[in-house]
Structures are given as C-alpha cells and as structure tokens.
Amino acid sequence: MLTEQNLRGVFVPVVTPFDRRGKLDVGSYIDLVQRLVGQGISGLVVGGTTGESPTIHTKELEMLIVTARKEIGSLPLIVGTGSNSTAATADRTAWAKSLGADAALVVTPYYNKPSQRGIIEHFQQISTAGLPVIVYDIPHRTGVSLDIKTVTAIMKMKHVIGLKESTGNITRYFQLARSIAKPVLCGEDELFFASLCCGGKGGILASANLDTSQFVQVYQSYQVGKIEESGRVFDQLLPLIQFLFSEPNPAPLKWLLAERGHIRSDSLRLPLTNISSEGEKIGAELR
Length: 287
Ligand SMILES: O=C(O)C1=N[C@H](C(=O)O)C[C@H](O)C1
Prior knowledge:
Elements: E1 9-13, H1 26-36, E2 43-46, H2 58-72, E3 77-80, H3 86-98, E4 103-107, H4 116-125, E5 133-137, H5 139-142, H6 148-155, E6 160-165, H7 170-179, E7 184-186, H8 192-197, E8 202-204, H9 212-223, H10 227-244, H11 251-259, H12 277-283
Parallel strand pairs: 1-2, 1-8, 2-3, 3-4, 4-5, 5-6, 6-7, 7-8
Helix pairs in contact: 1-2, 4-6, 9-10
C-alpha cells in the first residue's frame, strides 16, 4: 500500500496505446510500462487523464491494471477511480483494490457542481473502499473549485494520503504545501521545479512518459540540495513540456512517443483527435 510517507518522487500516468482502428495495443502498453520501470520512478498511474480514462471501458481498464501490476512488481500502482457519483467512485475504488492497486487517484466530482459539504462527504464515503486515496484537484477540467478550508478538512481524513495539485496557482501551492501535513504532488508539469521549491513532494507528470530519468533527476537533485542542478535539468525539459501541452493532452505525447518508436500508433479515441500538422512541425525538433 502507498502511505503518506512514501508518496514522494515522480509518478508517471501512463498513456493507453491504441492501434489504428482504436483497439487497445497491449504489446505497446507492456513495452511502455517495462521502459518506465527501472528509471527511478516512484510509481505508475493507470487510468489517469493521460491514460484517456473517459473512453476506456471497464474490461479494458481491468486488463491495464492487471498487466501493469504484473509488469511493475512491487513498484506502487495508483489507479484513477474518480467520477461524479460517490457510490460509483467507492465501488470502482474497491474494485481497483481487488485488482492489486496500491492507491486510488480520485478527482473531485465534476459537472454536477456539488457544494463544499458535498465534496467533503464524497471523500469521506470513499474511505469505505479501504484503499489509500490521493485527492486530485484540477478545476479547469472539473468545473469545481475547492476552498482551502475544504482541502484542509479532506486532508485530515485518515484514508487520504495526499493531494495532486493542478490548479496552476503557485501561491495556493505554496500555502497548501506548507500548511497541510500530507504530501502535495504537482500535477501541472510546467510548475514541477517551482512546486519543489514551494515544499512539494513530487509530481504526477504526463510529460515523464518521455525523458523519464531527467524528470527523476530534477526531483532527486533537489532532494540532495543540488538546487541549481535540479533547475538546470528542468530548464532543459521545458521545451518538451510546453510542446506536450500545446494541444490537448495526450495528443502531442502520443505523437512523440510514436515518433520515438515507443508505441506503434498515435491513435486517440474521439472526441480526442490527433495532433495538428502545425503541432507536428513544432514537435519535429523533439523527435
Ligand atoms: O493523467 C494525469 O495524471 C495528468 N493529467 C494532466 C492533464 O492532462 O491535465 C496533466 C498531468 O501531467 C497529469
């Protein structure tokens, strides 16, 4: 199980490769997972935004979880289980636990606009699943904002082990990382180095599907007090990060993974579409 003590470092939300007809490409997935293991990452996230969770069927997610569990050995496995139904999220979290997950990444309930009290009760109920929970706050995707008081209340819950902060607000990050006792992880790749300087404990970073060991180096250098080295390596990664988020994630990421030969196709499932030809031109320098 993941705990608040070992929720540290670089966690990679792995992409879900599809073939040209949109079917799961299991061979590419296994290759991807095997490539990530052994590069110093602290764990793998399956069924995140980057894994295109909205268009993955339950049977497919089951296969992705079971395969990852088998391939990564004892490395922590986090599964995205959040939805905008509390009961469904609790069920899915219990199911992920039964398949070998070490923790659940639970996004705040989107679309139906719950009150702050509703959000607190949502996270209380998920404790029934018996799996450690990482709260995922990403208001620009969910349409839901958490008050600082709400985050603080949720972070005191026993089964909650940390926060993935993706508001993009570095002042808020600084405030949270210093005031709550549990780890705050960066979910806004461009702010990774800044988040470490604010007291963050690591990141769940789509960009780390590529150049993984450099992302780990940013984290590790910072931990041993080599702040300048950490910042220098991060600066080298910035053009990659900016390219990967120049169009909806994970379209540029899948394109570059395919260009570098890590997956067979850059296919996505609608409504996500492939990177534009303009994007391909910009990305050509990063191949
Ligand atoms: O899948 C994830 O986890 C992430 N998704 C974010 C997004 O697509 O908005 C980005 C972050 O790197 C991790």
